[in-house]
Amino acid sequence: MRKPFIAGNWKMNLERKSALGLVAQLRERVGQRADIEVAVCPPFVYLDAVVQALNGSPIKVGAQNCCDETSGAFTGEISASMLIDIGCDLVILGHSERRQIYGETSELVNSKVHTALDAGLEVILCVGETRAEREEQRTEKVVGAQLVAGLSGIDGRSMQRVTIAYEPVWAIGTGLNATPDQAGAVHSYLRGVLGGLYSDSIAESVRIQYGGSVKPSNVRELMAVPHIDGCLVGGASLTADSFISLLEFR
Ligand code: PGA
User: Fold this and answer.
1) Is 172 in the pocket of ligand 1 (CB under 6 A)?
2) Which helix (DSSP H) or strand (DSSP E) does residue 46 occupy?
3) Quick check: is 167 catalytic?
4) Based on CB atoms within 10 Å of each CB, which residue in 53, 170, 172, 231 is the most buried?
């Protein structure tokens, strides 16, 4: 059984006070939930404080990116081992905003996946098609290629520490979520690709999150779809009330 995994991607939002206020409420109100896994992914500068605030709680803390190099002259970058050093559990890699705005290729994302796993982090690897790609009926081709390239050279054992997030680009921050049928079809396709890359049992064990305008009003129907094992949530993860109501999906 795959344990549902809901992660909040704060992106470049909140500030120290609001971030700590949010995690204090999460710790108090959902810190005891054993039936789901919960993570928050603050901006780099608040990671340390959030890790401290959640110390001893099962709520995981993740970064939104890391460098593909391990150390050295990379001005402005943060290494995976630094994230481990301050107590982070995971990192989001290959988010469409990184791919589209900052030009990250699947090869770079793959290199980051290797570095993060080698350092001991868990990884949420994001894949997703643009609206044009969906309209041209290239969704499977695009997300399949992103998945295969992102996981190139990653062994089956390491897949225990990898979650896939299917995030259609046209659904992110737009209020337009994929329908349960649309998302379910892509999730089931991605699981098939994982089966081909690894084995059926590994494919069955990897969690695939849906992301893109997940909110309290649609989380239930999305989470009811068989291959949707969790959500990667942007806007609705920024206040305690909305994030906590998402976690009440069942
Ligand atoms: P959204 O963002 O929930 O605000 O659409 C999701 C994401 O980009 O991870």
Assistant:
1) yes
2) helix 44-53
3) yes
4) 231
